[in-house]
């Protein structure tokens, strides 16, 4: 690619984006904006929301996602690496995990709401479970594909099983775990908002559900926009973390 | 060999035994592999004795069982028949007294050069304090000529440099015995000499026993106390010669001495036959 072509590309993308907004705005003036809302109305609502109301909901949703990611991610990584590394236990338990994974996640939401209530707790558990499975299967594959020659050389050096786990299995599977988290990020956002839409007092999902119940389309679009931005920021964070954690892989001679 | 006869007497005095028990002993050790239903004898029944602090070089064409000998001593393989003894005891399972530099690249790609070199010292079984570790790593990196590359990742190094990282990583913990499988094969001629020189000094200083596999006869004679010429199919020791060049040796000039060239010629004839035999089959 020519050096300036990236910038040209970005400019064209901006043009397309503005054009799409323009079509939406124009279209809404030709029909009834009650159902389609319009970009200008969304912009105004966004401004109003950010004067105060939204922060509480943002904090709740982001908090649920963060806690769920940590909980599910840590358990998924350790569990996947452990079972992937322990040949017999892995063969024994993996099918059971696969079976549990086949339960559609959203259908678990009512169960958790009954168990953990309307607060953040039930959503944290929902996010954690969504994240757990994705990270678990990736970590499992990663641990199984660790270079056998490296393991052998470390054993000869006198490394204990624990040392091999920490110093070889874990870093060697890092690429897989990071890939798992990259997939888990959008899932976590989905799990948190789904849980909130079903039953919650706070959070972007509940805000969205309330707006929809009032046929407040501008409110719905505004929340969707906010969620989209959160998702994009998470994806960006994932790419940055990947580049940092796997910098040894990108190193070139 | 005197060591041999001593070790076979079970009731020798302990003090004598310490000097008498060979570091490594193969007694009629044989290794067969079954591939696609047929049994292949990789190593014929061989007898081999290595004294403590001896430097034994194994030469021979590829596929003649040299690596199998190393794998047996390291405990990565067990003999189909016969015995492999280390310090007088049979090798069962991994032999942690040896440092093994295999032909495979086992440098950890996610660790920098200095972190790779120091990894053995991080392990609980050695437990070297961090400050001492840093010093030893720095010294070892200088020794193998990787100064300035401490913070580089293996992906940023050439094949020869990675070999040197593997070498430094093993030499740093001064194992009782070093098993080396063509460690300098990928290095250029000058660097090879430098590394041979360092290896000689280091193993002598740290009183390390070495089995050194190579297909470079000059290297084998320059470094070895004894040189064993292997012949293939099945792998067996064709000739074993003592190298009568006094230590310490001047690695850079040793090959120009009379003793060296005579031995080289003699062993080359043995080796040549083995190679011809290997290719004719």
Summarize the structure in words.
- The complex is a heterodimer of chains A (253) and B (281).
- With 253 residues, chain A is mostly helical.
- Chain A has one domain: MetI-like fold, CATH 1.10.3720.
- Helix content of chain A is 84%, strand content 0%.
- Chain A is built from 13 helices and no strands.
- In chain A, helix 8 (148-157) packs antiparallel against helix 9 (161-172).
- Chain A is globular.
- The model of chain A has no long low-confidence stretch (mean pLDDT 90).
- In chain B, helix 9 (217-223) packs across helix 10 (258-280).
- In chain B, the strands form two sheets. Chain B has a six-stranded mixed β-sheet with strand order 6-7-8-3-9-10, with helices on both faces. Chain B has a four-stranded antiparallel β-sheet with strand order 2-1-4-5.
- Chain B is globular, with a radius of gyration of 19 Å.
- In chain B, helix 8 links the parallel strand 7 and strand 8 (209-214).
- The longest helix of chain B has 23 residues, at 258-280.
- Chain B contains ten helices and ten strands.
- Chain B is of the alpha/beta class.
- Classes of the chains: A mainly alpha (253), B alpha/beta (281).
- Chains A and B meet through helix 8, helix 9 and helix 13 of A and strand 6 and helix 5 of B.
What can be said about this structure in brief?
By secondary structure, chain A is mostly helical. Chain A is built from 13 helices and no strands. The longest helix of chain A has 33 residues, at 53-85.
Task: Jot down its keywords.
heterodimer; A: 253 residues; 13 helices; B: 281 residues; alpha/beta; four-stranded antiparallel sheet; 23% strand; disordered N terminus
């Amino acid at each position: 690619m020519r050096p300036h072509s990236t910038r040209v590309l970005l400019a064209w993308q901006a043009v397309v984006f503005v054009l799409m907004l323009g079509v939406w705005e124009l279209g809404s003036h030709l029909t009834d904006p009650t159902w389609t809302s319009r970009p200008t109305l969304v912009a105004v609502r966004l401004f109003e929301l950010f004067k105060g109301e939204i922060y509480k909901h943002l904090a709740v949703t982001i908090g649920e996602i963060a806690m769920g990611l940590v909980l599910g991610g840590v358990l998924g990584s350790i569990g996947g690496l452990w079972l992937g590394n322990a040949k017999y236990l892995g063969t024994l338990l993996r099918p059971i995990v696969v079976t549990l994974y086949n339960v559609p996640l959203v259908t678990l939401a009512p169960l958790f709401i009954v168990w953990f209530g309307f607060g953040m707790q039930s959503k944290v558990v929902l996010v954690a479970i969504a994240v757990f499975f994705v990270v678990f299967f990736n970590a499992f594959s990663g641990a199984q594909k660790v270079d056998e020659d490296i393991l052998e050389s470390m054993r000869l050096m006198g490394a204990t099983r624990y040392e091999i786990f920490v110093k070889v299995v874990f870093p060697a599977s890092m690429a897989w775990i990071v890939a798992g988290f990259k997939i888990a990020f959008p899932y976590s956002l989905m799990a948190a908002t789904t849980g909130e839409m079903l039953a919650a007092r706070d959070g972007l999902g509940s805000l969205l559900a309330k707006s929809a119940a009032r046929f407040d389309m501008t409110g719905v679009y505004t929340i969707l926009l906010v969620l989209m931005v959160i998702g994009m920021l998470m994806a960006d964070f994932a790419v940055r973390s990947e580049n940092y954690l796997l910098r040894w892989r990108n190193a070139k001679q | 060999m005197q060591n041999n006869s001593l070790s076979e007497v079970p009731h020798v005095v302990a003090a004598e035994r310490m000097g008498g028990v060979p570091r490594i002993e193969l007694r009629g050790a044989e290794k067969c592999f079954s591939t696609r239903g047929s049994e292949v004898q990789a190593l014929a029944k061989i007898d081999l004795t290595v004294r403590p602090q001896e430097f034994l070089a194994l030469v021979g064409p590829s596929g003649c069982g040299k690596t199998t000998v190393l794998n047996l001593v390291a405990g990565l393989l067990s003999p189909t028949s016969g015995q492999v003894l280390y310090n007088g005891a049979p090798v069962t399972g991994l032999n942690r007294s040896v440092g093994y530099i295999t032909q495979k690249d086992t440098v950890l790609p996610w660790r920098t050069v200095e972190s790779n070199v120091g990894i053995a010292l991080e392990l609980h079984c050695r437990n070297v304090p961090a400050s001492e570790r840093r010093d030893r790593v720095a010294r070892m990196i200088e020794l193998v000529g990787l100064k300035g590359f401490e913070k580089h990742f293996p992906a940023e190094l050439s094949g020869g440099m990675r070999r040197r990282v593997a070498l430094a990583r093993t030499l740093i913990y001064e194992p009782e015995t070093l098993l080396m499988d063509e460690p300098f094969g990928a290095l250029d001629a000058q660097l090879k000499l430098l590394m041979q020189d360092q290896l000689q000094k280091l193993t002598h200083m740290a009183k390390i026993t070495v089995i050194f596999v190579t297909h470079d006869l000059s290297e084998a004679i320059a470094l070895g106390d004894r040189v064993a010429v292997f012949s293939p199919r099945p792998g067996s020791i064709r000739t074993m010669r003592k190298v009568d060049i006094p230590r310490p040796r001047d690695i850079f000039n040793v090959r120009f001495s009379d003793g060296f060239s005579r031995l080289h010629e003699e062993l080359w004839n043995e080796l040549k036959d083995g190679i011809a035999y290997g290719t004719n089959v």
